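seq/struct pair 1
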Amino acid sequence: MAMTLRNLTVLAVLALLLPTGCSFTEAPYAVAGRLDAADWHPERDGLLDLRGEWEFHWLQHIDPTRPSPPGFRHVPQPQLWNDLELPEGPLPAEGFASFRLQVALDEEWPEIIGIRVMEMSTAFRLYINGTLVSQAGTAATTPEATEARLVPQTNVFHRHHAEVLDIVLHVSNFIDREGGRRRSLYIGSEQQIHRTQHRAIAFEGILTGALLLIGLYHVVLFSFRRKEPLPLVFALVCAVFALRGVFEGERLILMMFDLPFELYGKLWFILYYVLAPVVMLFLHYLFPRESWPWLLKTVLSVMAAFCLATLVLPLSAAIRIMPFFHPITLVSMLYAVRVLALAILHDRPGSRVFTLGMAILIATGIHDLLYTENIIESTYLAPAGLLAFVFSQAYFIAARFSNSLTRVQGLSEQLRAYSLELEDKVALRTRELEQRNRAIMESIEYAQLIQSSVLPSPAELQELIPHHFVIWRPRDLVGGDFYWSRALGKSRGWIAVGDCTGHGVPGALMAMMATSLLNREAHLLEPDNPAAFLHELNLAVRESLHQDMHDGKAHEGFDMILAYLEPGRLTAAGAHLGLYTLQDDGPAYFPGSRKGIGYVEPSSDFRYENFSIALQPGDHVYMMSDGLLDQSGGEKGFAFGRRRLLKLLEELHQHPFAEHSQRLDQAVKEYANGEAQRDDIVVVGFSTETG
């Protein structure tokens, strides 16, 4: 007979499997449906594995209280019924059957007998001497009535001095690709059975907790060094193996959550599909030069396809596609061997210690693959293999960090020496910078004094506009916003507000130039035509800054609103600035021309436009730069804006003019809500009220 792939696989890993796949304990073996255990004593010999030839009744759930009906045969157990070698050929995986075994005891057997059923595919009932002792799911003769459940069962039976245990097992499977008994069935004393169960639960619980804690530690490690993804990938490996562990053995997940069999089965398959690829991913980040990124991407893509198919397909179909993933698992293991061999060949740090742990993990992985396919009788060893793998990896990471720490300590010593040398230099440099900063601040403070001195005094403004206020708040100590006035008599004369390019010292220098030009060209002022003066001022600024030359690169200039005030009327012209009024019919905005003064644009022949406003006693006028409108704040950080200003002016109509300055300033500060001042601010307000 040709050797099958399964036989080849067994031979290839025989050396790894002998310690776990064979038993060297002499134990009775059932023959023709009867097992003689009279000479077996549980307290002395341990648990008894009920192996051997059981009665097999295909497509029957026999009455456990009556003798077996004719037509049965004897089959070896444990073994899946679709793997039985029968003359008529293999049986289908889906179906139902009964198994029967009589166990002969003597008086030294304990009165209370414990029984441990590891796994049946996929539902069973177990009777002893006609009494239902153990059950998982609902074993029935139709798919509709059968409820699958894979949970190890530990139960006890009072034999009442019976010398023969008549064990009848009803098994049903209408969903799995394998039907019947997968694993051994044990009997012994009650204490032995419960001790075995408790040890298994404790081992799996401790192992799962340890893996999760190690994974959590590496997540924390990654949070401190986000540029190094290796700890995060290793945490993923620990999490996958920890979750896989609670789905195997005692199936701790089903002790914590009553999962439907459909959901449990799909999660089991998804965790199996993820195992090998995450190890490949970890190796990729551990030894990137020895890895094949294209193969990793291919395996991850296949894994994703199998996981998606498992989620979408019914469980019965998802079960049948599982064997097609075994070659991917085998390729992953061979790939891991290749990567580790190259890492050792290239003498990568920690590769030998890591290889030892990986070898144990691969061996247990192959073992579990064969165990899953019922080629060997053992238990799942992947969690224990991962524990060895984790310890080797912990050593590897500890060694890496230890070397890093050693290098850091060496660098720290060098830095400490440099620091001692630099401290004196830094102290000296700090003193020099403090002296220079003090000199600069003194210069700026002096510039502030100079700038303040060229602004109109309160007495000068009082002569022109008796009822007025001024808010002048540069963003820095000095700024580019200014105001200017020239009184020609009581309540008659010129007043201007300007906003120059730049802030701080550059803006202040531009503001002083603008003020100087205003004073120099003031003889050109015409009360009924301020726009003409703005035109002349534009020419003067462009000439001063050489902006009309072909290679002129000076983009400086300023915006300005210029107004001539006389009793009952205000005539004004704006260069990219306007003014606001508050009269009986509410607030209003009068825009200026769209171009400023200076700059490369507008051209020298640009003409500004005049506008005139009739004023009544009690009317208010506000001239300002755009610094107030541009102040950001509010919930969304938007600018204060013209619409909000007009609404504020309408509210100010209800208050005396003497309060307008304070209320206006307070409203802007509240809107800013701690936001830094963005621009220089100047506001000049006056009222035509008498008295």
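seq/struct pair 2
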Amino acid sequence: MARCVGVEPCTVVMDLEGTDGRERGEDDTAFEKQSSLFALAISDIVLINMWCHDIGREQAANKPLLKTVFQVMMRLFSPRKTTLLFVIRDKTRTPLEHLEPVLREDIQKIWNSVPKPEAHKDTPLSEFFNVEVTALPSFEEKEEQFREQVQQLRQRFANSIAPGGLAGDRRGVVPASGFLFSSQQIWKIIRENKDLDLPAHKVMVATVRCDEIANERFGCLTSDAEWLDLENDVQAGSVLGFGKKLGSIVEVHMEEYDKEAVYFDEAVRKAKRQLLESRILNLVQPAFQKNLSHLRTKALEKFKTGLDQSLESGKGFAASVRETTESSLSEFNQGCADSVIKQADWDYSKILEKVRRDIEDHALSVRESKLTELTNHAKEKLRKALVEPVESLFDAAGQTTWASIESLYKRETQAILPEVFKALSGFEMGSEFSEEMVSKLRDYGQSIVENKAKEEASKILMHMKERFTVVFSHDKDSMPRTWTGKEDVRAIAKEARSAALKLLSVLAVIRWDDKPDRIENILISTLLDGSVASMSSSASSGDPLASTSWEEVHPKHTLITPAQCKSVWKQFQSETEFTITQAVSTQQAHRRGNGRLPPPWALVAMAVLGFDEIMMLLRNPIYVFLLFVGYLLVRALAVQLDIGREFQNGMKAWVSMLLKSVVPNI
């Protein structure tokens, strides 16, 4: 211990033997730890001499020493800002700005790993120490530069207690008169503390050497050709016997470690072996996971293929899923067991659960697809069975139309159910699902009928005119009606309009029950009978068709509202009026055509007065023949020119037509 010459303020230097000195033997490590702690406790600045190549090494860089000293110092002494000046000797070409962060990080890690008393549990490193780092070149290689930088380092100690100086915050400073007593008490406390009895030097040597051997074996494994081939193979697909091959590779390198580390401290050797084994397992585990990933994909593909084949063979869906799932999971479990190595207790239960979920998801997807296909097939079959018959029933609409439609709907729906139940039995879904599906089919059947009814209702005017034309223009035997003048056009028109009105009443609402309604009566009394029947009732109750809904009919079942019925009927009347007028005109023309013969008295007069001419014709057959030929010629001409029809339009029209037809021919 000595005072520094030429350094102000007064600075005392205490030189301690190195932590790896040979003066006290390899086992006497307690004193060096005690002296180090003593220096930290009484000094404002502690210079720690460190070889550049020791940075980053566990033992050679004094990490165990610092860890223990930090721990004891926090327990024995209160915080005081001591400056730790790390002097890196024999500096290499590596810049200091690269070495300093590594060293600071190591110091911080040591501080964080030290168990701290409750009082200093959250105390940062900066509360106890101010870490500084400097570097010196090799004395033997660069003596002049070395001396120059040492002189610069010496200058840093000038005014070290000034604010921002090297001596820290100077808390807990002891006066010079009490320094001796204070130092004695500190040394006494340190000597009585047994926590500074640390492992011997041979343990440190074993630690360093076993680390080197472990690193060498790990490096050999990473470049092992057999391991690299196995790693490449597993990237391409699952490897048969993966666990046996990988376990053999790991075992070879672990045995090599055991051979080289057998003569070092047993506890250290085993600890480092565990670390090496952990590093190797961390290295090879991604390949294990990759192999399991391939097995997972393979199991899912096997399930998909097996399920498709089983379903194609006609086996039930649920039974096919059970058998295929069992087969796929069994193969996957076998592959996983084959991939595990004896050196590790790797658990593949999580990926097994993922495989189960994959299979369940695919089975659910296929089931939904099959059920959708089954439902669509049943719906299409039901649609074909209902659409055309319903359309035909609406075309021939009458009082029993909706009863017939309901009967058809029930019959066709019931007919399709056995096929549906048979198909559903293979899914083993339970009665509730079957009932739900049957309910959906029934609803679909009703929607077909209702949509068809809405479609026909949207064309009600056209249907009414067709119905009117059929009844008005054809007789009871469905033969075209000839208007000879004997028919009652008014009665026939009323009958035809009544038939059209009944069609309107059928398509006005949807009737899914046998409950009677008054729609037909209301329409006939209001529209067909006209104001004669409705005037008395309208006086008290108003127009029954002046509404947007029918009595006792749900709005969703209304196809044509009362107001719409009234509007349609008015348009229907205007568009069929011409047909009735034409029939009346035809009757009148027919009557005029039948009235062209002369009266009976004229015929008698013609016979009496023309008796001589008649007898002459009878006595001369040639005249009769010529007269007959002339009749045939006139008859043929009349038929060709349709003289009868033209004559119905008047004499002038007939003469005009005759001139246009005969004169050009002449």
